[in-house]
Structure formats: C-alpha cells, structure tokens
Structures
1.
Amino acid sequence: MSGTPADIPAGREISPEQLRDALEARTPLTIVDVRPAAERAEWAIPGSLHVDAYKRLWDGDHSVLAPLVDTLPRDRPVVTVCAKGRTSALAAEVLHQAGFNVSSLAGGMAAWSGAWNTADVRLPARAAARILQVRRVGKGCLSYIVGSDAQAAVIDPAVDPAVYLALAQERGWTITAVLDTHVHADHITRAYDLARRCGATLYLPRQTRVERPHTALDDGATVRAGSTTLRALRTPGHTHESTCYLIDDVAVASGDTLFLNTVGRPDLAAADAEEPKARAAALFRSLHDAVLRLKDDVVVMPGHSSSALPFDGVPFAAPLAEVRRDVKVAALAEAEFVDAVLARIPPTPANHLQIVRINEGKEAAPPDLQSLEAGANRCAIGA
C-alpha cells in the first residue's frame, strides 16, 4: 500500500485519506498544527510544526502566522491542522494569501483519528510466521496480522476491516481467525465486522461481559493460523479477562497488559472504588507469573503506542529483555507496585463507558465511530 509520491490536491482542503497516502509515499510537505498547546500535547501528527494560533486567529489577528510566512519552505505543499478543520481553514486562507500552496485537513484531528500505517515486526531467526503491525497513528492503537503459509490471524483490529483484508491479500494470506485481547475502552473493536467480512472465527477471552456471538478462549487455549500457533495467556489486571497471545514462542501480543515502558491501567469501567486496587494486584501477578517469564528474545507487541508513530516502517516492539529493563514499575514488590500503579493513573479516555457498552454488545454503535473515539488513548499508567 505504498508507491510513488502522492499528489497533494489543489485547493484549500485535503482529506485524511489523501494526507495519509502522501505521508505513506514520503511526499515532501509541511504540516502546521494550529491547535492550543494543551490539545497538541494530547496527540499530534508526527513531524508537524506547531503554532498556538487558535485564539488569535479567531480574534482576527493574522500576525500570529507571520513567523511561518518568513520561514516555511515554499517548494512544497503546506497542510494546516486543528481539532475539527475550522481553525485550520482560517490558517490555510492566511497562508494562501501569502503565496503558499496550502490545504486544510478536512475534519481535523477528529477525522485523522482513523489514519494508519504499517511496519513489519522483526522476529527471532527461528520464527516461521511473519507479523505485520498495523498502527492507527491518529489514535495510537496497534493491531497485528500474523501470517503463516497462506493463512493469517488478526489481533485487536482497530481500523477499517478493508485495510486488513487488503494487506492480507497483498501477502497471499486468507484471514481465518480474528482475536481481541480484551474488551477495549478507548476504541470500538473492528473484530466483529472483520470476522464477518472474511468468514473468520472470532475469538475473545472467556468472560461474561460480551453479549455478541464469539468463540471463548481459556488460559492455555490455542488458535492456529497455517503452521503457526497462538496460545492464550490469561493476564487479568487491565481488565478481568485480559489475555495475551504467545505466537510460536517468538512474539507476544500483550494487549494493554504490558507496554514497552509501562503497564496497563486497572481502573477503566471498574464496578466500585475498590476494584482498581484488586486489579492492580492481579496485574502484578499476571506480569510475574506469565509474561515476564517468557524467553528474553520473545518480541513484545503492545496494544498501544504512547505517541503517534511516523510513517517510517519501524515497528513499535522490543525484545522482552529490553522491556523488563525499561518497565521500572515491574521491578517493585507487589505492594509497592500496586501503590505506584494507582498513583499514576491518567484521566479516563473520552466516552470510555459508552465504548465499553458498544464493545460488549449492549449498545448500538453510532454511524460516526471516529468522533466517538477521538482523542489520545489513555490505557497505560504514566511511565
């Protein structure tokens, strides 16, 4: 899904898909983010410049962009970005009047939420499978296509199902299994739609939350994709049903249990004030009894990244030996671990309770999923 440099459309608006294609093709361009600093700190397009111009532009003060007029390269297109596409349209008009070839990102960062790119996961030499990381760069969600022989399994699909179908087809794979690591709270799972579209079996960790049809997996259960085996490792903590998938003893899809420098939060959709503490203790045991005991060279493939990943093809994954070193909180004793986890819980993701209900099959999804999901993921504790 790459190729020659993409054309930037003429006029003053560019769609998220057109911008994604341009970045994928390494088209030279300049992205200018005009949101307030606090909004940009939440999530931004990799490589973008920032000018906190929101208030002054709406006050009619165009001089806020004067430094850009003097410094931006004029030999490449400019794309302006804001939250929903209105302030960026003002900025685009100002820069157009200054002689730039400029477009505003239609729908802003809310629409960019669905943008994606890919990277091949680097596996130990003994690996028989190939694994493609699909990164929802506008949201930080990471999913995986595990290909072996002519079959594939998809773990935690978070972008349009058509993306996985096309990527698998390019590689000669038929998707036969779709798996989620847990009931997500920051985005609507695409697992049901993907499994339906390709006739694959949908697997979820065994639990009593989800009311939609699926095949339940217990601890130690296996799923085959070609000659590759995915083994379920029950790892309660982030949620009660959280499960990691060990792939041929060379990689582990760790969901929101273990990230590259931190661990999952234990409080989302908690039943009461005491539940997060109990889940934090369960997370400690899951890490030490299951995931952290795997081989040093097993590649940890987390369910999220902490920042937007560039279109560089570099996988966001690391050998377990490195992750053990970098996840400082995991070296603590259990009581200290629980205290540290509870002290580092960030604000809850927007609309997370509604997202959970939709993923459980207890509420219908709205037509505009990306607006519901807009905003950075906050499924990890602070590192």
2.
Amino acid sequence: MSLATPLPGAREVATWLASQGWSGARLEPLAGDIGQRRYQRLARPDGSTAVLAVYPADLRPACHRFAATTRLLEGCGVRVPRVLAADCDRGLMLVEDLGADTLEGWATGRPWRQVAPRFRAALEVARRVSRLDPAAVAALSPPLDADLLARELYLARRHFLEPRGLLEDVPESLVESSLGALVAAVAAVPRVPCHRDFMVRNLVPWDAGVAVLDHQDLRLGPPLYDLASLLNDSLFPPPELEAELVAHWCGGEERAVEAQWIEYHRVAAQRTLKACGSYAMAAEVGKDFHRKRLAPTFERALAHLARVPEIASVASRLAATWSRRDGAMMRP
C-alpha cells in the first residue's frame, strides 16, 4: 500500500520562496502528520521565521480550505497562524511560525495543575468554533456523518483490529451490528461546526490560552466531537479533569451531563478507534512515529467502549483478547 503522491520539486520550491523574500533561508524539516503534507521551518539571518507547508497534488484542495478556514477562525477570535503567502495551485503555503512546542510537548513532564488551565482554555476555543455559521462551514467539507464515521471504523478494523487478531473471539455478525449501532447513535444527533482534529498535537500554548493548527478539515460533526478529541488523543487528562470539562461543555447542569455522558463515550470510542486505524496505516507505509500511541489509545478506546450499551459486549471480548496479547502485538 502506498499513499505517496507527487510533491513540488526542490527547485520549484526554492524559486517560489525567493519570490516571497525567503531566498537563502535556513530550512529545518518538521515532523509531519499522518498524511502526505510536508513542513519545514524557515529561518532568516535576522531571526525571523515562518513555516512552509508543501502539499502533494491530491491534497491541494486542503491548501485552499486552510486559507478559507483561517479567515473564518480569525473572524471569531480564534488564534491561528496567519497565512503569509500561498500558491495553492502549486501546493505551497507560508504561514506564521507559532513556535516549536505543541500543547502535547509543552505539557510533557508538567503537573496537571499547570496543564489543566490550557485544557480549559482549549475548551473555550472549541466553543467558539462550534458557534461558527453552519452554512459557511458546510460549504467547505462534507459532514462527519454516518458514512464517514463508518468508513473510519472500517479502516480501523482492517488495519488495526483484524491484523492483530483482536476480533478472533467476536462473531462477525456481532462486530457488524455493534459497530453499526455505534455509528448510527453518534450520527443521530444534530451536527455543529467542529475542528475535526482538535487534539493536543494541533494546539499551541499561546499567551494564557492556546492557538489552533491544522484546521483545514473544519466541518459539521457531532456536538461532542471536538471535546472527545481534546480529551482522548495523545495526552489523557485525569478523571476529575475529564469530568469537569465534560460537565462544563454540557452546560454544568447535572441532568444534562448525565444525559450526555453516554453520547460522550460513544463519540470518544469512535474517535479513539479511528486514531488506532490511522496510526496503524501510517506504520504500514514506514511512518512509525505514532506507533508508541497505539497501545494507550486502544486502551482508552476500550474504556469508552465498555460504557456504550450498543457495543459493551464486544468491548469485553476485545479487552480479554488484548490483555492476553498486547505485549507481543505492540512490539515494532
């Protein structure tokens, strides 16, 4: 399996950078995401910096969307990198450099009492995103609907669960019906604007709050999707902070929170399974930098699945198989 698509050549990139006043800048490759975009930090002798994003041919529509979502998010007061220059038809974009540390990196090694305020600030940013004009967001990308949610779980099955034998004790019919019921329940609620990948690796500490990266996939989705992404990807808050943030997102009313906890677990279960599939697919094409996230993310998924009525029986079998085999399966 290959995900490679053509990227602009080095000479083309250098010529374009020179036309933007960045000739001779020092280039530092940056860790990419699971997709095929490439990033480099540019540094001039005077100390000014920027980030170059290079898009392969089939992802150039995402470049145009990034420009559009930048305008939308700036308009509602969300801090995002400014677009300094762009030629999306050629797959090239220069954006403001907001620093080397994502929220994940900044938080590593710090006590949660220092990290928690950033999570609270991130939740307020997610609230602003959810209040964007739904029509404007709907025009950008297809919604995160039942079809897309189901496709993500299919990829998780094919690339993570099945190759590791995690479904060997679960009848196929039960897998199909349970996952189908999970998707139907997640997709049944009215959709709102969401970032789509609102997690700590796409957030940057900024002033006392956070700035937002990688927002080109903004779309309509489940109301709790960005909350579930924030609390269940790469950096997992302690239970008391998780409970506080879920309660805050749901309005702080006890009855409302009780009614939405199951919805939260459903969305978080789908999100974490989807992440396992993405990490496994990346590893298949030689991108091993997310392999370390597989085990903790799947264990997070199991915890949420166990609390979802539609799939709890499958979750218990998955957990039993995982407990027998996780060490061997997670070795590179």
